[in-house]
Amino acid sequence: MRHINTIYIKTMMLALAAVSASAPLAAQNVSRVHVSGVQIIRDDASVGVSFTISPGKWRLPLTREVTLTPYIISANGADSVALPALTVAGKNAWYYAERNESERVTPVYLRAGKGADHSYSASAPWQPWMETSRLDFVTVAAGCCPGNTAGASEPVPVAEMDWRRPVLTPDFRYVTPQVDMEKSYNLSGRAYVSFRVNRTEIDPSYMINATELRKITASIDTVRGNRDATVRAISLTGYASPEGPYSNNVRLAKGRTEAVRDYVGRLYDFPRSVYRTNSVPEDWAGLRDSVAVSILPDRTQILDFIDNGGIAIEKRNDVLRQRFPQSYAYLLKNVYPWLRHTDYVINYTIRKYTDIDEIRRVMREKPGNLSLDELFAGAMSYPQGSDEYNHAFELAVSLYPDSEVANLNAANALMSRGDLKKAAMYLDRAGSSAEADYARGILAALEKDTDKALSLLRKAQTAGFAPAAQAIESVESLRKAPQGVRFVAE
């Protein structure tokens, strides 16, 4: 069964949704043909017309007849559909039709001045052009007998109809990011620089040192190659494995870190103050990570041992070797070498950009130089909804994936062009602010879940987000808006 929704025809203007239909044209139009109770109902597949005609009120010459045909006509007049016609006839014309049924103009003949009220009902398949259309009754008068010619047709306007479904045109609210006064970034990595047993002197040609040292210098060169960047600090942290006496590991970790610092320092002209060193004599955290993903039979027991803080650091490795001799032999050969490494962090700043043309250029050439607020300024410099506008917001969230503001703004941009699925993904990472709840409410409304939309919008309103009030009013109207139109003309 098709679902039908109806309202009396009227004009309804909504902030976020609109559906309208005009009132019947002047009541005297239908009273001229003695018609009452006109109803027009649309469902998903058809549009139906029904009314009552009172032939007893008609006054026609004895041999005259009038054929009445309901027409649904497009707003521009280019398309039309005629519904089944009926005829009201004077006394002699009616008798003639009764005796000569094969000559009837229409199947239904009603006698003027005497006939009983007749209920009319007919429908036509729905067509897209009917969304904005009108209903006319077209009357044609003629004589009943051979040789008589029909008179001119006369349209009787009945109603203008606007069946357009509610359309949501939401007010997307973008959030301006906080301005970063200093744009500070970190470039980090790990190098496995090898040293000969119990030594702290660095040999670039030893084992794979040339490759590992190049990791550090390549990272520094990347920053130095950025003309708008300034290196602020190069932090080096050296790690040793738990093998051997703890005091010796303290010496090795510290000395090897300083050796890497001195090697790098000879290659660049940075002030000595740029370099910062730290050391970890025994990398138990790294050992734990390796054991956790291993298939050692006593993996759980070893993890419990590592997590036990009751054993003095100077004795932990010896106790580990004694308790788990077989696994220790495996770890010593396959894991311990990788616990000797140097972690590095290059901290640098990038100058601020204030000129919009420059921001646009950097956005194209080196977007990683831009802060979130600069990307926002660049986005807002383009026409809203343009490809450049939308691209800037998606670029921002790709560069700052953990930023709630970037996720929220990207979701708004995606909703504005109909990509609701991807917008929902970003809104999941947009946090719990009132602005985020508002955006989720708009998304729910676009997905036609008005109950969820109102719940979220009211939450945003309670949190003090003023635009939510208008959105609530509009979504409530949208929820009440009908999906079809019905009217009665008395």
Describe the protein's topology.
Layout: H1 27-31, E1 35-42, E2 46-53, E3 64-74, E4 80-82, E5 86-89, H2 91-99, E6 109-111, E7 118-125, E8 132-143, E9 153-162, E10 183-191, H3 209-224, E11 229-239, H4 246-267, E12 275-280, H5 284-292, H6 299-307, H7 316-323, H8 325-334, E13 341-350, H9 356-365, H10 372-380, H11 387-399, H12 404-416, H13 420-427, H14 434-446, H15 450-462, H16 468-480, E14 488-489
Parallel strand pairs: 5-6, 11-12
Antiparallel strand pairs: 1-2, 1-14, 2-7, 3-4, 3-5, 3-8, 8-9, 10-13, 11-13
Helix pairs in contact: 5-6, 7-8, 9-10, 10-11, 11-12, 12-13, 12-14, 13-14, 14-15, 15-16
Write up this protein.
This protein has helices spanning 27-31, 91-99, 209-224, 246-267, 284-292, 299-307, 316-323, 325-334, 356-365, 372-380, 387-399, 404-416, 420-427, 434-446, 450-462, 468-480; strands at 35-42, 46-53, 64-74, 80-82, 86-89, 109-111, 118-125, 132-143, 153-162, 183-191, 229-239, 275-280, 341-350, 488-489. The longest helix has 22 residues, at 246-267. The strands form three sheets. Strands 3, 4, 5, 6, 8 and 9 form a six-stranded mixed beta sheet that branches. A four-stranded antiparallel beta sheet has the order 7-2-1-14. It folds into three domains: 27-162, Immunoglobulin-like (Sandwich), CATH 2.60.40; 183-349, OmpA-like domain (60s Ribosomal Protein L30, Chain: A, 2-Layer Sandwich), CATH 3.30.1330.60; 355-480, Serine Threonine Protein Phosphatase 5, Tetratricopeptide repeat (Alpha Horseshoe), CATH 1.25.40. The protein is α+β, with helices and mostly antiparallel strands and 490 residues long.
